[in-house]
Amino acid sequence: MSKPSRSGRFSQTSITLGIIGLLYAALSVGVSRSAARSPNVAAASPDELALLDGYRHVEVASASDALERITGKRGYMSHRMRPLFASKFAGVALTVQLKKEENQDPDALNGMLAAIDQGAPNSVYVLVLENGIDIAGIGGLMGTAMAARNFSGAVIDGGVRDVAYLQKIGFPVFALGIVPSTSVNHYRFAGVNVPVVCDGVPVNAGDIVAADADGVVVVPRAKASEVLATAQEMDYKEHSMYGYIEKLKSIEEAVKKFGRL
Description:
alpha/beta
């Protein structure tokens, strides 16, 4: 058998490289188009990551106290907003509003799903359903998508279902209750990254949302660094007080020394 000529081998190599180049170009175009469709997906800056790490380590009660001290306003949600299981997280608010509307429109909730698929890592999905305390705003499918996209968690002004599955995958959700209902045919998407009021607390896209066993607090982004620094100071004082109280058997003496209650 005769060997392929040198020119034949070069020709085959050129063809192969050309095909690879075309595939790479097509892939690059696909990636760029995907990015264009997903404006919320962006790498967090080092400053933002440091901010979130700080909020993940302070107690929500301290963040709540710090916010009230600095702004004079309440930023915590009510006792009704409870976790499906013991959870602690902090992230950046991605807000979604649903409007109560009976319909047979198969596209009525498409915007809600698109908001998830375009959400960035470290997002907290803040969903408000108009008069929706007995309507499940999130279930296993949506929770799976959020977990796959590395959301920090979800806070729902409404109900939650598929509880066993959400517990199985470990995706943290705070909600007003557990119900087996659906929003399909009963609600319509009304906006993403719009100002909402979630369990009585104003939330804007980009705000910091922190949650733990004590509940949920929302910190306006413009005040987030200042509130965090004050919350860290409060945490340090409070944690230092425990041993002092045990030693002296007096909370009054501890409050006098540390100035924290």
